[in-house]
Amino acid sequence: MGKVKKTLIMGIILLIAGTGVTAWYLLTPHEAVQEVDVKFVPDGAWLFFSSQLRLKSVGIQGPDGVIVSQFLNNIKKESLRLAFDWKKNTTYKFRLASSRGTMEIEEKSPDNDYAAAVQFSAPFTSMAESADPMVFEDKMEGSSTAVENNELTSAVIITTYQQAETIITGSVTIPAGVKVTAFPQNPDTKVVYREEETVIYFRTTLSVAYERFYLPFSIQVPGEGQYRLHAGITLKGAGDRESFFSRDVTVRVVNQESAGEAIRLVSTSIPVGIRGIALMRYAEDTLYIQPAVFQKLGRFFGVEPKYIDYNHPFTYQSLVLENTGTGSIALLVNSGIYYKDRDVTPEAFRPPDLL
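The structure assignment produced for this chain is given below.
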């Protein structure tokens, strides 16, 4: 009888435990399948994950076998750069082992050897990302917006990715009506004026991988309208191999009111870190000034760093702006802290005079 009772109790315990495990499995939200975006760059590829992963190992396999096989020791990553030599129009298999399991991604490399990148910007706002495939294309068209009678800093930027001497020749054609206010100071540069256009001819030689050539100049756009700027570049490498690049930028000129209507302030945050990410341990829109007595006590007990922050209690502020127009536009953003009822900066928030 005792054995039967013990067996019955044990069966009930196992039944309860099994039910609990089943309920836990059914009710626990399972992690979604991880998405991986592969972007080829001149010397390898970037892997971008939809969320942070703990990576155990990574491998790359090509038509000729294994290219990369590396243990990663459970490092946390939202993106991963892999350096290897790839060939155009070739399928590669990426194998990732993480805390969520193992996944395999097949991706075909571009129909381009990525030997050089050519960027033409008017106005110049920032360097293009190395993972942006557009800068490697033979032909590319872009657009931008400018305010009438404004001066725009423009630039042609060429980067080579081969360890060999490359001779570069090219020209930038600027239509009539657009005034060149500052010409390139590069050697081997020539400016030719014509009735219908102004042409800047240039020539240079790049000798090593990742060497970069800049051709900056400034233009002044007239009244409202559209003006197309063209850049044509020829690269001659080893074995007399030539590559041709064509870049067009259409600058749309508007009045100041129209340009302002295209820009929308989405959000503003303070305090934030140096990268613009909100500091969640602080109250929103609040600056905390630590009393001096607490600073001294913290330093006495060794929990407060012994340095002087001349910017205290200053912090970073982030602004999120949205361009609702059709082309890129250069902005100068000025931000300040003022009294709530008047446009005057409080004494405590003026830049410190360290001298």
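Interim note for the steering committee: The CA atoms of residues 41 and 132 lie 8 Å apart. The chain has three domains: 36-108, 116-258, 263-349.
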